[in-house]
Amino acid sequence: MSRIQLQSVSKKFGTTHAIHDVSLDIADGEFMVLLGPSGCGKSTLLRMVAGLTQPTSGRILLDDNDITSAPPRQRDLAMVFQSYALYPHLTVAKNIGFPLRTRKMARQSVADSVARVAALLDLTPLLARRPGELSGGQRQRVALARAMVRDPGAFLMDEPLSNLDAKLRSATRTELIELHHRIGSTFLYVTHDQVEAMTMASRIALMNDGRLEQVGTPTELYDTPRSTFVAGFLGAPPMNLLQADVVSRGGELYVEAPDFWVPLGISSAGVADRSVTVGIRPERIVLNLDGAGTPATVVTVENLGSEELVHVLVGPNALCARVSRPAGVRPGDTVHLGLDTSDIHLFDRDTGRRLVWQPEDAADLDTTARETSIPVLTS
Ligand code: ATP
């Protein structure tokens, strides 16, 4: 069991500033997923926790002990790589037992530990085979077994499923979730796959260009993205984002873009007009065929099997709606978009940060709410 803390960690490779001042507290037993696009610094962060890369500044603590400069072997952590890194000439049993033999554990104890972990991961029938005689998923399980055999406090995993085909990936994902429930260890897991992150994580740390963009549960990131980056990263297809203005009309605030306006249900007293980016999840748009809502022209319809993606134009703006099949519309049709005010996300046009309506009693909000709120719709 392990708590991992990163305190103001930065990493420079020559002139490349790979990690900027990252602080993250990973609780004992948590499944923390580091998510983000290619090159955002996920692997570098994981490697610093593993001790394979030295931070330029900052501290890393394991159960309150400073391990920033400790060599990898002295950290109670096990790493599972994308490439599995198995020894091809050794049997599965020998591969799994390798970390124990290098620690000079007695032969019988090694055999017992290997048998225990192999049984846990359904590898018992494969113990005499060599890695070349295994499927990708089985090799991945052997790599996991080798990491588990030492009973580490935490597992560090770098895209461990990325070499698997879609079906195996989904099955192994489920196995990992079950494994985490069963053993209760801390998992720090790197991926650029949002489905892995959404399904497995207790919390996601979404990274962008070496910085933490948002840390929270999958639901928090999906439902209340802190920025247009988060809004555009999570979701398939991602949130629709369009340039608009918040304006006052008859004492009420409206979001307006060409051929598009939605009341926000907020009094405009003392609130200045401002430029915003509006976000709407594709699955939150209702296609009304009876003439109620914002008029739009259908451009294309994509059949996903269970659902359809209907791409429409509202004035110059392209929007995507994700609706059940069949939507009963064709390119060129006019439809009306039903939008609920509560499904409208607002972001500052310049900074991309989320805007929230912060009422006058904002002082009563708890600290987290105040920190994540940007009180700009108020006067
Ligand atoms: P991916 O998903 O593609 O693996 P990542 O998010 O894991 O990407 P990192 O591998 O951590 O990203 O890389 C972060 C940045 O640091 C990138 O700009 C990368 O080019 C740079 N970088 C990583 N390792 C080194 C190194 N050893 N020397 C120089 N630059 C490096």
Task: Produce a short descriptive summary.
Helix content is 23%, strand content 35%.
Structure commentary:
This protein is of the alpha+beta class and 379 residues long. The chain has 2 domains: 4-233, P-loop containing nucleotide triphosphate hydrolases (Rossmann fold, 3-Layer(aba) Sandwich); 240-372, Beta Barrel (OB fold (Dihydrolipoamide Acetyltransferase, E2P)), CATH 2.40.50.140. Helices cover 23% and strands 35% of the residues. The chain has 9 helices and 21 strands. Strands 6-7-8-3-9-10 form a 6-stranded mixed beta sheet, sandwiched between helices. Helix 2 (92-101) crosses helix 3 and helix 2 runs parallel beside helix 4. The radius of gyration is 25 Å and the shape is elongated. The two termini are 48 Å apart. It binds adenosine-5'-triphosphate.
